[in-house]
Amino acid sequence: MKNNILIIDSDYEEAQDFVKGLRDTTNTDWSVLLYENNKIYGIRRYIKFFTVAWQFFLQRRKYKESVILCWQQFYGIILAFFCKKTIQYNHYDIYL
Q: 46-70 pLDDT, tens per residue?
């Protein structure tokens, strides 16, 4: 099932204009997934980057043929790393 997904790590109000512009520009609906990580500091923040990307990787069949746009580039880089290391990169498109 094709589904456009935007992963953001800040509060929704901060990204609201970006989300509106993205929807208007692409003329498609985007599911916004919020993983508030910008208020966490230290090693816990980096652990969360890996765990969120790992969760997406484990559910990769759910997002088959989807477009995943990462507001926070670490989510996309780590997700792409997991996919490349396991040769699973053909399930969806990742944009940073």
A: 888 888 888 888 887 787 778 888 8
Instruction: Report the pLDDT value the prediction gives residue 21, as an integer from 0 to 100.
Output: 92
CA angle 11, 61, 66 (to 5 degrees): 55
- Distance between CA 53 and CA 41 in Å, rounded? 18
Rama region for 18: left / alpha / beta (φ>0; ψ in -120 to 50; rest)? alpha
Quickly tell me which residue has 């966490």 as its tokens: 40
